[in-house]
UniProtKB/TrEMBL annotation:
Signal sequence segment: none
GO molecular function, one term: monooxygenase activity
Keywords annotated in UniProt: Monooxygenase, Oxidoreductase
Annotated PROSITE patterns: ABM
Name of this protein: Antibiotic biosynthesis monooxygenase
Domain ABM: residue ranges: 14-104
Pfam family, one: ABM
InterPro entries: ABM_dom, AI-2_Isomerase_LsrG, Dimeric_a/b-barrel
UniProt xrefs under Gene3D superfamilies: 3.30.70.100
Matches recorded under SUPFAM superfamilies: Dimeric alpha+beta barrel
Amino acid sequence: MPVSTTARPGDTAVAIIVTLHVKPGREAEFLGLLTPVLDAMRHEPGFINAVLHRSPDDPTLFMIYETWADLDELVQVQIPRAYRQAYIAALPDILRQERGIAIWQPMRGDFATAIS
């Protein structure tokens, strides 16, 4: 799914919330494709943070919360990076439905400790 928004790129940081409904039995495969992407993107310019979540009620439902310094940089430079391509190409076969992508403008962040 292409990322599009009415937010103004370059203004401020941007939060991306991605929801993914994985086909039952494909969770390990999904995580195997996603993990190297998360590991690589933490070293990218403009990357602020990412937190992977799993629903306690549905083990096939995942959510990724990402914060980036600039939407334009994310869309034009980061998403097309080579390390993301195997993951992106596999999604149509692994997911039960198209992933959801929502773009938010962070207003405040409070963190006591790292999430493990």
